[in-house]
Write a structure and sequence with these properties.
The structure holds 2 protein chains of 2 kinds. By secondary structure, chain A is mainly α. Chain A contains 11 helices and no strands. In chain A, helix 1 crosses helix 11 and helix 6 packs across helix 8. By secondary structure, chain B is an alpha/beta fold. Chain B contains 11 helices and 10 strands. In chain B, the strands form 2 sheets. Chain B has a 6-stranded mixed β-sheet with strand order 6-7-8-3-9-10, sandwiched between helices. In chain B, strands 2-1-4-5 form a 4-stranded antiparallel β-sheet. The chains are: A mainly alpha, B alpha/beta. Chains A and B meet through helix 7 and helix 8 of A and helix 3, helix 4 and helix 7 of B.
């Protein structure tokens, strides 16, 4: 009787384990199929020329240079705006502001902002940056829009990272006569840094793949030059990919696939950098 | 100084040495809930004063009031005065950061910073504008914490690699590096094994030559072994305060007797 129930309990564990394993593998398999499909389509076009040529009407001559550089500009500027603002906001909310109604309200609001569709940020960017501040369809306007888009994500992730720092570290710092800033700067931030970095990279990865807000603020789809300053017009990888994919000719579809590969490799490089920085930060922390 | 009325027990205690900390009619509340209720006692210089009592009696709250660590807890209210060397540490013009530089603290669980041993000890002096020989200060502090022999060859390795007892002595060294007058210890041995506990207790004997020590402990044997004076708190009220010998062998109060003989708590 008793052992019967025990057997049933073990059986439940097995079933649940199988279910979880199946779902985990489903994700991996789908990703693998996708990668395989994209690689088979695009590998033929992926060569040095593809990276160094501008887009063209002739698929054989078309390259992704302007989109790649546009994305690089966009990400660097977005990182430059969003990291300081986002991390500073998180530090303020987590370490300095009193935990009252207002800060709860702000917290709920930031959570909501993280869920707002990106096209809405595009509209805001169009009105605020492109028109009102008259930045035009520049890479600056694009990166400011992207900054708004990913700021909530960065703030939430950085707050989580700060919250995960044991309070005993703050107490130890305060008991040594540290001011709040000294405690945060020298003891809390270094411990939170790996977590903050993870959040930042996830947010930037989102920015790199966003298309809708860029289309909204009028990023160009056919650009035969590389932006040389923040006020220049630009295009970005996802826009170029979308442009190629929407053409009727088969060759352009394959170009789109090659573009996707470039985008994925860029993402992978960013993530690898983040892992590397994080491990270094963790090692010096120990 | 003050001329408040105090219990007899505590007058005999203060005759021994000049008080460093004077607690006068202190009440501390968390919201509406009182944690410390009209406590008065004074802590003499270069003595070890133990605060004992059952869980939740307010001993940690009392201790944390001495270096204003309660300031970080929301909704804490305090009445009465705590005088350090005769001046009110809760006076409006007093900066709590200044108080904590003079009155150091060691916590229940060893909490070294996740940095090197050297950095752990050097950080306090360096953020407080210490301009002398930092390395000498670090060495002296670690020596006084009876840790030097064990770590002198690996000062730049992580403090987290030390054992629990070593970490706690490092935390003591870290507090000593500030050259405080008073060291508050909040159950410093409760996370340690008996051997480490004995080392820290030995250390406390040496430290009281230079420093005034206040220790909170729920271990009555420890209070009896290390302290010169013992305060017994129950439900936030001071039941008895006097020489440790007297409190443990000839308690004046019935509750104290019941507690120190292990009948409750």
């Amino acid at each position: 009787m008793r052992s019967d129930r025990l057997r049933r309990r073990h059986a439940t564990t097995r079933v649940f384990r199988l279910l979880c394993a199946t779902l985990a593998w489903a994700g991996i398999v789908i990703l693998a199929v996708l990668l395989f499909h994209v690689t088979r389509e695009g590998i033929r076009w992926l060569d040095l020329q593809f990276l160094t040529e501008f887009p063209s009407r002739f698929p054989e001559q078309a390259g992704i240079k302007s989109a790649l550089w546009g994305t690089v500009w966009l990400i660097i500027l977005t990182a430059g705006f969003s990291i300081p603002v986002g991390v500073a906001a998180a530090i303020y909310l987590e370490e300095f502001s009193p935990k009252d109604r207002l800060s709860q309200l702000i917290e709920v609001n930031i959570g909501n902002l993280a869920g707002v569709p990106s096209i809405v940020y595009g509209i805001l960017g169009l009105v605020l940056f492109v028109r009102f501040l008259a930045l035009g369809r520049s890479v600056l306007a694009g990166s400011l829009t992207m900054t708004l888009l990913i700021l909530p994500v960065i703030i939430i992730a950085a707050r989580e990272a700060l919250r995960a720092v044991p309070d005993s570290i703050r107490q130890a710092a305060f008991a040594l006569g540290a001011t709040r800033w000294q405690a945060v700067r020298a003891q809390v931030l270094p411990v939170a840094l790996p977590g903050i970095l993870t959040g930042v990279i996830l947010a930037l990865s989102r920015a790199i793949g966003e298309t809708a807000p860029l289309v909204m603020i009028g990023a160009l789809t056919y650009v035969a030059f590389v932006p040389e300053g923040p006020m220049d017009a630009f295009t970005a990888l996802p826009i170029q990919i979308f442009n190629w994919a929407s053409r009727p000719q088969e060759n352009f579809h394959q170009l789109a696939a090659a573009g996707i590969m470039v985008l994925l490799v860029t993402l992978l490089l960013m993530n690898a950098t983040a892992v590397w920085i994080r491990q270094r930060a963790e090692r010096t922390g120990r | 100084m003050n001329t408040q009325t105090r219990s007899n027990a505590h007058i005999s205690a203060t005759e021994q040495a000049q008080p460093v900390l004077d607690v006068i009619d202190v009440t501390i509340r968390y919201g509406d809930k009182p944690a410390i209720n009209k406590v008065s006692l004074s802590i003499p210089q270069h003595r070890i004063t133990a605060i004992i009592g059952p869980s939740g009696c307010g001993k940690s709250t009392m201790l944390r009031a001495f270096n204003r660590m309660n300031d970080f807890i929301p909704n804490v209210g305090m009445e009465g005065q705590i005088l350090y060397m005769g001046s009110d540490i809760y006076a409006r013009e007093v900066d709590p950061v200044e108080v904590r530089r003079r009155i150091g603290m060691v916590f229940q669980k060893p909490n070294p910073f996740p940095k090197s041993i050297f950095q752990n000890v050097a950080w306090g002096p360096s953020i407080n504008g210490f301009s002398g020989n930092l390395e000498a200060r670090v060495e002296q502090s670690i020596r006084r914490a009876a840790l030097w022999e064990e770590v002198s060859d690996r000062l730049h390795e992580s403090a987290l690699a030390l054992s629990g007892g070593q970490q706690q002595r490092l935390c003591i060294a870290r507090a000593l590096a500030m050259e405080p007058d008073v060291i508050l210890m909040d159950e410093p041995c409760s996370a340690l094994d008996p051997v480490s506990t004995a080392r820290i207790e030995d250390l406390m004997f040496e430290l009281k030559e230079r420093y005034t020590i206040v220790i909170v402990t729920h271990n009555m044997q420890q209070a009896a072994r290390v302290s010169n004076l013992t305060a017994f708190l129950e439900n936030g009220s001071l039941v008895e305060f006097g020489e440790t010998d007297q409190v443990f062998t000839r308690p004046r109060n019935k509750r104290t007797e019941e507690y120190v003989t292990g009948r409750f708590g």
